[in-house]
Design a protein that fits this description.
This protein has about 230 residues and is α/β, with parallel strands linked by helices. Helix content is about 50%, strand content about 10%. The longest helix has 15 residues, at about 170-185.
């Protein structure tokens, strides 16, 4: 059975993997995770291979433990062989081993620390919505599809003068913020800019809000990249 997401993880991280699975499914994604989805009396390796082949994205729960796990390495190798897109979700501040770096060096990474992880899970869901064709839409799109009203997204609320929810920001200013953020977060930068714009007092406040979503190293890179 095809699933949106295959979760790859090492056993010491099973609590995080289970929590992530619950969050993804609560947001409408279909998920395959072992051992929950391994059929009774099935051959474990064959089930893993079939699930990877049927998935649209692999989310790798990346930690010091998964970094040295032969099972995780085999799953990543198979995903790369099948041209399956991989999204490493780093829950510890570690760098990939050489055996994994070979496969993951070109991948987009998301950090899932420091805790609590709720905001990190939201970022991961936003990224998956961009990656998976036909994936579950965000809250506003679901409301529109159901024929109900929803608060307008900032992009929809802009006037010709560039006003977003009551304050003025030019298209050039927004592009500059999004460009700086995209160097760190990749394709979800625009989503985060739109979200943080809601209720921001001015452009400086919007920049502060965006910076607050980043860890200390990325925050410094974002702020230092001002034009």
């Amino acid at each position: 059975m095809a699933r949106d997401v295959f979760i790859s993880y090492s056993q010491p991280d099973r609590d995080c993997a289970s929590e992530l699975t619950h969050h993804l499914e609560a947001n409408g994604f279909t998920v395959w995770i072992a051992p929950r989805d391994v059929s009774p009396a099935a051959e474990w390796a064959a089930e893993i291979i079939d699930a990877i082949c049927a998935a649209k994205v692999m989310v790798l729960v990346f930690s010091a433990s998964s970094n040295t796990s032969p099972q995780v390495r085999r799953e990543v190798e198979r995903a790369v062989h099948k041209d399956l897109r991989i999204l490493p979700f780093r829950i510890e501040d570690v760098l990939p081993s050489r055996s994994l770096e070979y496969f993951l060096s070109a991948q987009h990474w998301l950090d899932g620390f420091p805790p609590p992880r709720e905001s990190h899970y939201e970022r991961l869901c936003a990224c998956l919505r961009q990656w998976i064709p036909g994936a579950v839409p965000d809250h506003a799109s679901r409301a529109e599809a159901a024929g109900t009203s929803a608060s307008p997204r900032p992009a929809e609320a802009r006037s010709n003068g560039g006003a977003i929810h009551g304050f003025h920001v030019s298209a050039e200013q927004r592009r500059e913020l999004e460009t700086r953020l995209a160097r760190i977060l990749g394709p979800i930068a625009g989503i985060l800019v739109d979200r943080m714009a809601i209720g921001a007092a001015d452009c400086a406040d919007l920049e502060r809000r965006l910076a607050a979503e980043l860890d200390s190293e990325d925050r410094q890179r974002f702020l230092q990249a001002r034009q």
